[in-house]
Amino acid sequence: DAKTTQPNSMESNEEEPVHLPCNHSTISGTDYIHWYRQLPSQGPEYVIHGLTSNVNNRMASLAIAEDRKSSTLILHRATLRDAAVYYCILRPTGNQFYFGTGTSLTVIP
Amino acid sequence: GAVVSQHPSRVICKSGTSVKIECRSLDFQATTMFWYRQFPKKSLMLMATSNEGSKATYEQGVEKDKFLINHASLTLSTLTVTSAHPEDSSFYICSADQGSNQPQHFGDGTRLSIL
Predict the structure, then answer these.
(1) A43–B6: do the CB atoms touch at under 8 Å?
(2) pLDDT tens digits, residue range B1-20?
């Protein structure tokens, strides 16, 4: 299973943009890049996913490097409700998810 | 959006009891569901892949006789923790997706506490 590397923790001020990095240097051509977040005592929540092109949705944007060896999840204006553990996961076509350690995001009021 | 319902949300029971956890996809059919466990302040660990109408595929180190998985329909998978002991206490989470390369949808988890 392809591995991802994320910082253990990050902080952001409320209403500021947040850039959460993820390295995945061993990614293969068919691996999708998925981002999920998890609040305490809840199941993970889908945030965004993509293959090669940058993606935008109502929650966030996903910027994928041209060589696909890294990606960045962008929260445009952090709110207190965005405080969570964010997981970057590579998923081969149709296959399982293997979670890494994730990044714990703290939002400072 | 797609919803996965997990029940019960919390279970407390005595050592030696068997506990069944249900995972339902409410508005889509899921040929494959996944079961995870999570210890405090740790990441999710994939336990097994539940396949509708066939045997589950277990990850290395997960005892299939201890964690029985049944996926009898396209909307329901169950995980039974047999003869549970205190070391089985954990947060169990299921997920399902609507097809290859689609997002996974997770249940809210089941907090299992064995006394």
Answers:
(1) yes
(2) 569 999 999 999 999 999 99
